[in-house]
Amino acid sequence: MLEMPPKGDGDDDDDQPQLNTNYDDEEQNAVDIYRGPLIRSAFRALVQDFSPIWFTWCMNAGAIGTLLHQLPYQFPGLRVLSTIALTIDLVLYVVFSVLFILHFVIYKRRAYQELVDNVLDLCLFPCWSIAFMTLVSFVTLTVSEASWGGHAFTIVACVMWWIAAVWSFGLLLFVFSNLIQQHTIMDPYLPTLIIIPAVGVATLAAVGGIFACFAHKVSPGLAVPVIIMSLCAVGAGIFLGLILYTFLLYQLLAKGWPAPPMTATLFILVGPMGQSAAALQLLGSAANTHGHFGAYNRGIFLTASAAASMQVTCTFLALLMTGLGAVWLGFALVAMLLRLVRRELTWAPTWNAIIFPTGTLTTATLLLGTELESAFFKIVTVIQVVFLILVFFVNAAFTLLKIWRGELLIVREDHRVKQALGGKPKAT
Predict the structure, then answer these.
(1) Whole-angstrom Cα distance, residue 256 to residue 245?
(2) What's the rounded Cα separation, in Å, for the pair 393 and 377?
(3) How many CB atoms lie within 10 A of CB 320?
(4) Rg (CA), the chain
(5) Residue 104 to residue 360: CA distance in whole angstroms
(6) 120 compared with 19, residue with greater pLDDT
(7) What is the pTM of this model?
(8) Domains of the chain from N-terminus onward
(9) From the CB of residue 197, how many other CB atoms can be counted at a distance below 10 Å?
(10) What is the 8-class DSSP label of residue 36?
(11) Which helix (H) or strand (E) holds 334?
């Protein structure tokens, strides 16, 4: 989970994106926005304040489960651990989705307005669809290959993937359309989270590659359309990511490292390149190694000869993107190390931003280890997986502690009422 200010709160104008706001309109709607008791029931607090940032837990569990399933060095019980991680992903996703849907069903227009008015919430909205895509990987890798699974679950995974395709591109357009329409973000304040929609479409491509490579007895008729659509998605992820990198690097050069609680968000910048590198390798392998283009055999592109060239090209591009992703990972590690040396390194919920983006780069090195038969990439992959698991348990321990203290997830004091009593709200 990434730490965010309460919805509608913006105490630090220097750290938050700015937008044009008409306070007269806010005063007229104050009763509708802030109506309710100051101290709420636990259920009301849970549903009213529920945010898409909680879906990052599903993403993290799903990424770790997928990596454990495909790890180059397997041992007895590792697949069981992978299944446990993916089951945690499924359970959390169902619970969080129910809460998020209730959030909109109960609070309707108010909930929607809070979402689109808050830049950080809006940028995190695609996490819902990204978490869903980790379940597509779960069905593909585990369920379709189970003794009770089979080809029927390959069809289920295919349907889920196409739903995710419409969902992820729809959210990409929704997020940026609202940012353009409703917010005037000064470039020094461009939030790192703005790159998440690019990660979303790149994840769609990677999961499409997983489906085409590993689904049980997947036919070329099912696999090839997924491969083609995934290539379009990875193109969107790569180029949109590169465009946003320009602004975000400028922000780092102009303002320096983020504040200590937000330093871990730098790991998000690994995502577009890491996920695109993994997606390209999977799609190249699906087209050539798994023979889908050769079996499909139509036109000049969907042929066995074209597939061989495509796989080589995809591996080459993946190496380039892995290099850039490693640079961003290096920046993030240096920033964390500087905080440690200055004794400014303390745990914050933003540490949840470490796992999924770094996991995308880990997937890329895992696949490079297989494609290049490289012991170096395989060892690097194992080191990264161990690191991600440790961070996951650290995050879980601190998160549960803060929930128990009433500082996260269920905060019974309604900041909206407190803010209304204190004065005009500030926009974020």
Answers:
(1) 15
(2) 25
(3) 12
(4) 22
(5) 31
(6) 120
(7) 0.87
(8) 40-412 (1.50.10.150)
(9) 31
(10) S
(11) helix 304-341
15 DSSP assignment: T
Length in residues, the chain: 428
Pick from 167, 160, 203, 168: nearest CA to 63: 203
- Per the DSSP assignment, residues forming a β-bridge with 39 are 413
Rounded Cα–Cα distance for residues 332 and 384 (Å)? 14
Token pair in block for residue 68: 């454990």
For the stretch 116-134, what's the b/e string if a residue is b when 16 or more beta carbons lie within 10 angstroms of its beta carbon? bbbbbbbbbbbbbbbbbbb
Q: Which residues pair with 413 in a beta bridge?
A: 39
Are the CB atoms for 166 and 157 separated by under 8 Å?
no
**Widest CA span in the chain:** 70
Whether 210 and 138 have beta carbons less than 8 Å apart is answered as no
- The DSSP letter of residue 414 is -
At 323, which amino acid appears? G
Question: Per-residue DSSP letters for 157-187?
Answer: HHHHHHHHHHHHHHHHHHHHHHHHHH----G
As a whole number of angstroms, the distance between CA 236 and CA 92 comes to: 29
pLDDT in tens, 119-164: 889 999 999 999 999 999 999 999 988 888 888 999 999 999 999 9
